[in-house]
Automatic annotation (TrEMBL), chain A:
Organism: Nitrosospira multiformis (strain ATCC 25196 / NCIMB 11849 / C 71)
GO CC term, one of those recorded: membrane
Top-rank taxon, per record: Bacteria
Protein known as: Cytochrome c oxidase subunit 1
GO terms of biological process kind: aerobic respiration
Membrane-spanning segments: 18-38, 58-80, 92-112, 132-157, 200-222, 234-259, 271-288, 308-330, 342-359, 379-398, 410-431, 454-474
TrEMBL record, chain B:
Protein name: Cytochrome c oxidase subunit 2
Localization in the cell: Membrane
Cytochrome oxidase subunit II copper A binding domain mapped to chain residues: 78-175
Family in the record: Belongs to the cytochrome c oxidase subunit 2 family.
Catalytic reactions on record: 4 Fe(II)-[cytochrome c] + O2 + 8 H(+)(in) = 4 Fe(III)-[cytochrome c] + 2 H2O + 4 H(+)(out)
GO cellular component, one term: membrane
PANTHER family linked to this entry: CYTOCHROME C OXIDASE SUBUNIT 2, CYTOCHROME C OXIDASE, SUBUNIT II
Transport keyword on record: yes
Native organism: Nitrosospira multiformis (strain ATCC 25196 / NCIMB 11849 / C 71)
Main location: membrane
GO annotation, biological process: ATP synthesis coupled electron transport
InterPro entries referenced in this protein's UniProt entry, alphabetically: CcO_II, CcO_II-like_C, Copper_CuA, Cupredoxin
Keywords associated with the record: Copper, Electron transport, Membrane, Metal-binding, Transmembrane, Transmembrane helix, Transport
GO terms of molecular function: copper ion binding; cytochrome-c oxidase activity
Length: 495, 175
């Protein structure tokens, strides 16, 4: 059986590149949250920005959030993975430069070119604008996504190279010799297993995404180059689902690496762990038809596959990763600080958000809830209270002054504000979905407005809490790059 | 269906909440010997796995028993009424907007330009059926309207700046 032994070595500080990723993530995340708040306030009739600006902001919010959580997740993955394999800092920084280049292109497309076809850019909407935006604006948006995608492809190729070089293959990075043979205790650590999984699925997802983007770019200027809309939709959702799922699998590495330091208990890459990650590798790539359940033109088996894998996909989340976190915290004597609180609650957010997600993937439910606010309800739960909590937990970890440093009352209040704000915000979404409020509407019917108002107030609480998180991280940047003991030792070992 | 989905979600989310709160409450005192605790935890996990499987697998199969992709046998009587629908930016073109109640209706949905979503809301503003409207393909909604009244149609797939205004009505009643 693979082992993890806690040794009280200093926690490694972050490289300058990781800090650059995180600082940019803070700024963009906050801006995108403010955009989200504006949309909810518009639906709540608390402000009036008009449909055009609503959909432009919606497009930026979607593309910006997906991009920035991917950047933050990549920072976490790279920070811990480089402690096991030899990664290229040059490639890591190239990804950041390409990312920023893509962001500028997307901002120009939306703010100057009025592009507002949503981040999902469902063909043929980007090229059929009814004169609302130019072909150039559409090309700029898709080109921006493509540039960002190229950066991530480079990053993942470098990670694949490093894992293959260190472990001898991606199968070995997933621990297949220990999974399918005798467990000799030499399985890679969880951070490597997770990085291998993310690299495999993201490389495939990004190539598919880039392919459809290139096809659409050609179609913008050569309309006779025809694309099957059903094929385009399938490729877009394959890419989109894989990429957004991968961000959680990148960020959860912070939980695998940091919680054991707080509890001085191992997070073992045993057979069950390895099996769950191999299963997730496959399921993440085949679950995407649950986005297409209302496209009856697809083969029925394909749609049923989305339904079935939606149910199966909850097992690794609940039974392995979620349960694993509970196991090492239970009677551990853990000292709760901002980092350990956020990482612990992140597993709660992930697991609890997966429930309305798989229910939405049930075909008969999807028939009456697809593209209602139920959908943003579930993914905001596991992204905000799950993935984003992991990112902020990592930031508090990097910035913690010393292992015994107490948290201020403001930080603790911000933690509870974040939890309550997120749950209130996402439950408002879910309840609106229950009463059939349609998704992506600039104006809501009067019956839906009260819940938009409730959501807006909770979103304000959430953003106020995030402001504290970000302020704290930015004021502690000087500490974040140093090597020293950060994680508090569990009670009986510390005293 | 929406009520069921909401209640099942709440129950599952609350069960996870109780589990997490239980662990948080019991995190303060350290049990130094991790080995025996792991053994107990793995044993409980096995039981948890089978308990979840015992609930999830039948639910997964049960929910596949009645899919919207085919007409329900013997769900209604009388000849099938057909509505041909084409989505445009930003209006619905329908060759009829009035049907009889308690008789099967096939709504053949397609699009002339981009992706739209044909969502049918009952008089209580509850979504009761939908299908994507896609250029080059026709998706057929098989439905029987159980009661008379005016059913609203809303667009369920983002299609541009007037997406939220893309509404029409189907009147269900004796002609």
């Amino acid at each position: 059986m693979a082992t993890y032994t806690y040794t009280p070595v200093p926690d490694q500080g972050a490289k300058a590149g990781v800090l650059a990723y995180l600082v940019i993530s803070c700024v963009v995340l906050l801006l995108m949250m403010l955009f989200g708040l504006l949309m909810r306030m518009e639906q709540a009739q608390m402000i009036s920005i008009g449909a055009l600006w609503f959909y432009k902001i919606m497009t930026l919010h979607g593309a910006g959030m997906v991009g920035i959580v991917a950047l933050a997740g990549a920072a976490i993955m790279w920070h811990f993975l480089r402690q096991y394999v030899d990664l290229s800092t040059g490639i890591f920084m190239a990804n950041l430069i390409l990312f920023l280049t893509g962001v500028v292109m997307i901002l120009a497309s939306v703010l100057l070119g009025d592009f507002h076809a949503a981040w999902t850019f469902l063909f043929p909407l980007p090229t059929t604008s009814m004169g609302m935006w130019s072909p150039g604006a559409a090309a700029l948006f898709m080109g921006g996504l493509l540039v960002i995608g190229v950066g991530f492809v480079l990053l993942h190729l470098d990670i694949a190279r490093a894992i293959i070089s260190r472990y001898g293959g991606l199968g070995r990075g997933l621990g297949w010799p220990q999974l399918f043979g005798p467990d000799d205790g030499n399985a890679p650590p969880p951070a490597v297993v997770a990085s291998t999984m993310v690299t495999i699925v993201n490389l495939i997802g990004l190539v598919v995404g880039a392919s459809i983007l290139v096809m659409m770019l050609i179609n913008v200027y050569v309309p006779t180059f025809e694309i099957d809309p059903l094929l385009a939709k399938g490729m877009i959702y394959f890419f989109g689902h894989v990429f957004i799922n991968a961000v959680i699998y990148m960020a959860v590495i912070a939980v695998y690496e940091i919680l054991p330091r707080y509890t001085q208990r191992p997070w073992k890459a045993n057979k069950v762990f390895l099996a769950s990650w191999t299963a997730s590798t496959i399921m993440v790539m085949f679950i995407f038809p649950h986005h297409l359940l209302m496209d009856y033109a697809y083969p029925k088996w394909f749609l049923i596959m989305g339904h079935i894998i939606g149910y199966l996909n909850t097992f690794p989340i609940l039974i392995v990763t979620g349960y694993g976190a509970m196991m090492i915290v239970y009677r551990s004597g853990i000292r709760w600080d901002m980092c350990s609180r956020l990482l612990f609650v992140s597993l709660f957010g992930w697991a609890v958000g997966a429930m309305p997600a798989f229910i939405d993937g049930t075909i008969t439910v999807n028939y009456v809830m697809h593209n209602t606010l139920w959908v943003p309800g579930h993914f905001h739960t596991y992204l905000l209270l799950g993935m984003v909590a992991m990112v902020f937990g990592f930031m508090y970890y990097l910035g913690k002054p010393n292992e015994n440093a107490p948290d201020s009352a403001l930080d603790v209040a911000a933690f509870w504000g974040f939890v309550i704000g997120t749950m209130g915000f996402t439950m408002s979404f879910l309840y609106s979905g229950k009463i059939s409020a349609a998704r992506r509407y600039a104006e809501h019917l009067p019956e839906w407005v009260p819940y938009d108002k409730i959501a807006s107030y909770f979103a304000m609480l959430l953003i106020a809490s995030v402001l504290v998180f970000i302020f704290r991280f930015l004021t502690r940047l000087g500490l974040a790059s140093r090597d020293y003991q950060r994680a508090s030792l569990a009670r009986s070992m510390a005293t | 269906m929406q009520e069921t989905a909401w209640q099942v979600s709440l129950v599952l989310m609350l069960m996870i909440t109780f589990g997490v709160v239980f662990v948080a409450i019991n995190s303060g005192k350290r049990e130094e010997e991790y080995g025996p605790l792991v053994k107990r935890a793995y044993s409980f996990r096995t039981k948890l796995f089978w308990a979840v499987a015992f609930v999830f697998f039948p639910a997964m199969i049960y929910n596949l028993m009645s899919l919207p992709y085919s007409p329900k046998a013997a769900a209604s009587s009388g000849p099938t009424q057909v509505i041909n629908v084409t989505g445009h930016m930003w209006y619905w073109e329908m060759d009829r907007d009035q049907v009889e109640p308690n008789q099967p209706v096939d709504i053949r949905v397609t699009s002339a330009d981009v992706n739209h979503g044909f969502g049918i809301y009952d008089p209580d503003l509850r979504l009761i059926a939908q299908a994507q409207a896609m250029p080059g393909y026709t998706n057929v909604i098989h439905i029987t309207f159980p009661k008379e009244g005016t059913y609203r149609v809303l667009c369920m797939e983002y299609c541009g700046v007037a997406h939220h205004n893309m509404m029409t009505e189907i009147k269900v009643g004796k002609s």
